[in-house]
Each structure stands twice: as structure tokens, then as C-alpha cells.
Design brief:
There is one protein chain. With about 90 residues, the protein is mostly helical. The chain has a domain at about 20-75. The protein is about 55% helix and about 0% strand. It has three helices and no strands. It has helices at about 20-50, 55-65, 65-75. Helix 2 (about 55-65) packs across helix 3 (about 65-75). The longest helix has about 35 residues, at about 20-50. The termini are far apart.
Length: about 90
Amino acid sequence: MAGVDTPRGVGAAVRLTPAERAGLVADLERSSVAVREAERQRDRDVAEARQRGLTWDEVALGLGVSRQAAWNRYKSVRVGLQDQPLPDV
């Protein structure tokens, strides 16, 4: 099967043992779990910040994004809230 040993964009073929391949796959799986957990924590942090009165400008500053990007991404995050919309402040 073409491309199995040499991913596109990689120079010389790298020969990996089955155990090395399995280890790399496990590393990727762990990374994916960590990213999902971090994203959930960020959602909780944003929801708490908004619930406690931070403006979208302040949330954006903390996230390192624009106010519009923060609002677009997190406007519907309602962690621990009972279907109460987050204010647009």
C-alpha cells in the first residue's frame, strides 16, 4: 500500500516497529483526550467569567482572541446554568 511507510511531506522512509506505531497511536489518543478536557475546562471558565460579570472584551483578552471571536465561540456556553442566555454585554 503506497504511503504507509512514507507519509506525504516526509523525506526518507521511516521504518517503525509495530510496537513503535502502537505507541505513537496511543500518544495521539492521549493528546486528543487532553485537548478535549482542556476545551471543557475552558468552556467552564468562560461560563463562570460571564456569569460573574466579565465583559466579552475581558473574556477575549483572557483567551487571546478578538471580542467577536470569543462571542461567536462561547455565546451559547451554559455550563451549570439553567437555560439562561449569557448576556451580550
